Amino acid sequence: MSTVGKPIKSKAAVLYGFNQPLKIEEIEVAPPKAFEIRIKIFASGIAETDDLALSDDMASLNFPVILGSEGAGIVESIGEGVTKVKPGDHVIALCGPMCMKCKSCLHEDSNFCVNNDVGKNKGLMLDKTTRFSINGKQIHNFMSCSTFTEYTCVDEFACVKIDPKANLDEVSLIGYGFSSGYGTVLNTAKVKPGTTCVVFGLGAIGMSAVMGCKVAGASRIIGVDINPTKFSRAKELGCTDCLNPNDSDKPIHEVIVEMTEGGADYGFECIGKVDVMESMILSTQCSYGSANIIGVPKSTDRLVVDVMWLLTGRSLQGAFLGDFKAPLQFPGLVQDAIHAKKFDLSKLVTCKLPFEKINEGFDLMRQGKCIRTVLIMDK
Ligand SMILES: NC(=O)c1ccc[n+]([C@@H]2O[C@H](COP(=O)([O-])OP(=O)(O)OC[C@H]3O[C@@H](n4cnc5c(N)ncnc54)[C@H](O)[C@@H]3O)[C@@H](O)[C@H]2O)c1
Question: Is the pTM of this model over 0.85?
Answer without folding.
Answer: yes
